[in-house]
């Protein structure tokens, strides 16, 4: 699992609901979407997964690098 920080000042990408894109060796990808502000969630399959793959590519473009994200997270944890 990869965790990267999205800068607060970026305005290129907005995600209303958190999601997890899961890729498997022997079947097609599935997306688990958690609905913000509710206790609900749902799964996305088949051609609808492409929308989340595109969103993930856009997030990848604006996110800090793995190394920079790791440094910030470590510094925040050490400050607790």
Task: Give your account of this protein's structure.
With 80 residues, this protein is α+β, with helices and mostly antiparallel strands. It is built from two helices and three strands. A three-stranded antiparallel β-sheet has the order 1-2-3, with helices on one face. A hairpin with a 6-residue loop joins strand 2 and strand 3. The two termini are 24 Å apart.
Write the layout of secondary structure elements.
Elements: E1 19-22, E2 30-34, E3 41-44, H1 49-62, H2 66-78
Antiparallel strand pairs: 1-2, 2-3
Question: SSE order, as H and E?
Answer: EEEHH
Helix count equals 2
What's the count of strands?
3
Rg estimate, integer Å: 15 Å
| Overall pLDDT metric | 91
Quaternary structure state of the chains depicted: single chain
Helix content: 25-40%
Major sheet attributes: 3 strands, antiparallel
Class from secondary-structure proportions: alpha+beta
C-alpha end-to-end distance: 24 Å
Low-pLDDT parts are: none
What global shape is seen? globular
Name the beta content range. 15-25%
User: How are the strands ordered across the major sheet?
Assistant: 1-2-3
């Amino acid at each position: 699992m990869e965790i990267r920080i999205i800068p607060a000042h970026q305005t290129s990408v907005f995600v209303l609901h958190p999601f997890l894109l899961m890729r498997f060796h022997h079947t097609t990808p599935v997306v688990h979407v958690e609905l913000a502000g509710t206790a609900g969630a749902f799964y996305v399959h088949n051609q609808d997964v492409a929308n989340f793959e595109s969103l993930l590519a856009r997030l990848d473009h604006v996110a800090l690098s793995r190394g920079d994200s790791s440094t910030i997270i470590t510094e925040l944890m050490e400050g607790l």
